[in-house]
Design goal:
The complex is a heterodimer of chains A (471) and B (64). Chain A has 471 residues and is of the alpha/beta class. Chain A contains 15 helices and 11 strands. Chain A has helices at 10-18, 24-42, 50-65, 108-115, 158-165, 182-188, 222-232, 276-291, 305-323, 325-330, 337-344, 351-359, 361-373, 400-419, 448-461; strands at 45-48, 77-81, 119-124, 171-176, 191-194, 214-219, 262-267, 295-300, 378-382, 423-430, 436-443. In chain A, strands 4-6-5-10-11-9-7-8 form an 8-stranded mixed beta sheet. Chain A has a 3-stranded mixed beta sheet with strand order 1-3-2. In chain A, strand 10 and strand 11 form a beta hairpin. In chain A, helix 9 (305-323) packs across helix 12 and helix 9 packs across helix 14 (400-419). With 64 residues, chain B is mainly alpha-helical. Chain B has helices at residues 5-16, 22-41, 54-61. In chain B, helix 1 crosses helix 2. Classes of the chains: A alpha/beta (471), B mainly alpha (64).
Chain lengths: 471, 64
């Protein structure tokens, strides 16, 4: 039994624990053994506390045996990008600057996961301060793609994608400012959702760019993500930026029919530079959705999306530079060259340009919603426009080819962050090189339920989510 | 009008004071000119009465 435990989904293992078919201790021990075997090859943990996790699992089993109240994630082992604070625990943010940082307070999302019964196995690898799309971090061993260690894990939630994809944990939190949940999920062959801006509290979460940052889960299936997001979403008295929007029971509507649901195929922007094998996989996924009853509708996206793609970095870099302005002056040598370079431009953006980029955001959102969501219910688009690159193709450099590659990785995801819309990455096949391909579903604000409904229906009709890396 | 290495040096010396090696002083103008072009291109969109908090209002007003 223990050999097969890591291959269950999050919701399957949660149900198995709750119905006492398996103990949390057995599940956590199976994950610990898998982590001990795989982490030396894939480097997805920054730190872990297996003994504490096993003790928490024993306590969870005792609580269940005693008939105490249990939550939706009772006894389920998770691990998270190393930027979600827990009082007294390390939270390195993937950096040298915060190598020994131990916060004195706990993130609301971590409180909520603990209240739901989740067991925390530790802090996962991430790009230094969440600044970079391909998963490279000069302070850490190279985090590697579970499908082929010669390929990138993407970032910045690199360890979250790898840990879930490698079946080492059942789910993980990530953060998404320009694609940092969806891209690592896409290349690891798992599901990742960047919820609507403000849907999830960011209290106790490392800031990268406060106008863009979103917190969300990466997990093996759409249902897994729906459950994790249900646990962490909702108003928070400790975060004034968190929305008061009610949190639905998304799992209850997962099985709704797709008949009459309009799935949009974007004309313009999202398919620029998309290579044939990605386009073919996406077309096949649209055909599946069509056979499930969805109406496939071609829709022109506003040309202003090109402006959005240029303005998102104005916001991200301005806010990033402001966040790091003290350490960049006092401890510049503690940053890697790559992240120090990425931060520098923000110091030279005039405040007027930054504020303008924030003020015009409403217009761009209105244009996009009017052009797209009056015609379709969800937009279906590529996550990455190209197959997953090799690590050797992404080694740090400042040459034009390298910069083009970095920009390409997030061109289809960063625009969604600027618009504040929810988007979910769903696996839909493999490239000739054997690496996963994914589409993203983009929805109206607070319409995560529609993304889950469409993604779940697709998952039930296809095998991709159940395929596991050859580890 | 374009940002040059001299511009970067002057602004950094006078305003920001972050450590910047020569190679970065030479490289930064390309990125800064792209960012600047994005901002200049959007000046005509700017509505005097727009408030950044309108964005949050619109998210709720257009929810699905």
């Amino acid at each position: 039994m223990s050999a097969t435990l890591p291959f269950l989904t999050l919701t399957e293992v949660a149900d198995a624990i709750t119905s006492k078919k398996v103990s949390s201790f057995e599940v956590v021990r199976a994950c610990v053994e898998r982590i001990e075997r795989l982490d030396p090859k894939l480097h997805f943990f920054i730190w872990s506390e297996p003994e504490e996790a096993l003790a928490a699992a024993r306590a969870a089993d005792a609580r269940l045996a005693a008939g105490g109240p249990i939550g939706l994630l009772h006894g389920v082992p998770l691990a998270h990008k190393d930027m979600f604070y827990v009082a007294g625990k390390r939270s390195t943010c993937g950096s040298k600057v915060r190598r020994d940082f131990r916060p004195t307070y706990t993130a609301t999302v971590m409180e909520r996961l603990a209240a739901a019964g989740a067991v925390n196995l530790g802090g996962l690898a991430m790009v230094e301060f969440a600044m970079g799309p391909h998963g490279y971090n000069a302070h850490l061993e190279q985090c590697r793609n579970p499908w082929n260690p010669e390929y990138i894990p993407c970032g910045s939630s690199s360890g979250s994608g790898v840990a879930v994809g490698a079946r080492a944990v059942y789910g993980a939190l990530g953060s998404d400012t320009g694609g940092s949940i969806r891209c690592p999920a896409a290349v690891a062959g798992v599901v990742g959702i960047c919820p609507t801006y403000s849907r999830v509290s960011r209290y106790g979460v490392m800031q990268m760019s406060t106008s863009l940052d979103c917190v969300g889960p990466l997990a093996r299936t759409v249902r897994d993500c729906a459950r994790m997001l249900h646990v962490i979403a909702g108003p928070d008295g400790l975060d004034a930026s968190a929305s008061d929007e009610p949190v639905p029971d998304w799992e209850a509507t997962l099985g709704d029919t797709l008949r009459g649901v309009r799935v949009g195929v974007p004309e313009g922007y999202f398919y620029d530079g998309v290579v044939d094998e990605i386009r073919t996989a996406l077309t096949a996924s649209l055909n599946v959705l069509g056979t499930l009853g969805a109406d496939i509708v071609h829709v022109k996206v506003p040309p202003s999306l090109y402006e959005v793609a240029e303005l998102q970095p104005v916001v991200m870099k301005s806010e990033g530079a402001a966040n790091h302005s003290r350490w960049m002056r006092e401890r510049p040598a503690d940053y890697s060259d790559q992240v120090r370079n990425r931060l520098q431009a923000g110091f030279f953006i005039p405040a007027t340009d930054y504020i303008q980029a924030i003020k015009v955001r409403t217009q761009f959102l209105a244009e996009f919603v009017d052009a797209v969501f009056t015609r379709v219910d969800v937009l279906h688009a590529p996550v990455l426009p190209m197959p997953v690159p090799r690590i050797s193709e992404t080694m740090p450099s400042s040459g034009p080819a390298y910069l083009d590659m970095v920009v390409s990785l997030t061109r289809n995801t960063k625009v969604v962050n600027y618009l504040g819309l929810p988007a979910m990455s769903v696996p839909c096949g493999f490239s000739r090189s054997g690496l996963p391909i994914a589409f993203q579903l983009i929805g109206r604000p607070f319409a995560e339920g529609r993304l889950f409904q469409v993604g779940h229906a697709y998952e039930r009709a296809t095998p991709w989510h159940s395929m596991t890396p050859p580890l | 009008m374009a940002i040059t290495p001299q511009t970067v040096t002057m602004v950094n010396d006078a305003v920001q004071g972050i450590p910047l090696p020569d190679v970065r002083i030479q490289e930064l103008p390309m990125e800064l000119n792209q960012l600047r072009a994005a901002s200049v291109g959007n000046r005509a969109r700017l509505d005097f009465d727009a408030d950044p908090s309108d964005f949050r209002r619109l998210l709720h007003a257009t929810k699905g």
